[in-house]
Amino acid sequence: MSDFLPHPFWNFSLELYAGEGVAEACLDLQERRGCDVNILLFCCWLGASGRPTMTAERLRAILTASDAWQSDVVKPLREMRRRLKDKVWPGALPETVDAVRRRVADAELAAEHAEQLKLASLHSPPADRERSLEKRLRATVGNLGVYAVCLGVVPDEADRKSVAALMRAAFPAFAPVEIAEAVGLAA
Asked: What is the domain count for the chain?
């Protein structure tokens, strides 16, 4: 993947997504709530890097700019990758279908990377490196709350558990009980 332009948001996303339970949490929110995983990661990056909480107006503008790329490029690639994985292709050699699926997956990842670069270009206020971890956690949870508002979602317990998984990976210095409290999980 050496042709990917380096960017702090991309690096953060790769590290966060590899965290325990993060991929499952993101995919859960994607499937159940229609979340764009890149927007979830963007909300986390902004807060965790010391940037302020976004307004709903600002996030709506970002979503408008990224929705076309998601619907016209990323989602069709994802659907093709899934079809290649899940469907039986009579007469095709399984290893050939798998090779095509891997190439489509690479294209999907490149499209996700392009979306992340676009997101960062649309909204990347300066990071406050002196901002406390508590304020960063609150800003991150706040960004995800703003995203829920933009989606018209009232978070339920399953949503809060998924967000808690993201927060545990993004903020390992906090105890699980502190993360649960920050995302509003019942003790």
From this structure: 1
